[in-house]
Amino acid sequence: METAGAVTTLALVCLSVGLGQSFLFTVAVIAAVASWIGGLVFARFLGRWI
Question: Is the pTM of this model over 0.90?
Answer without folding.
Answer: no
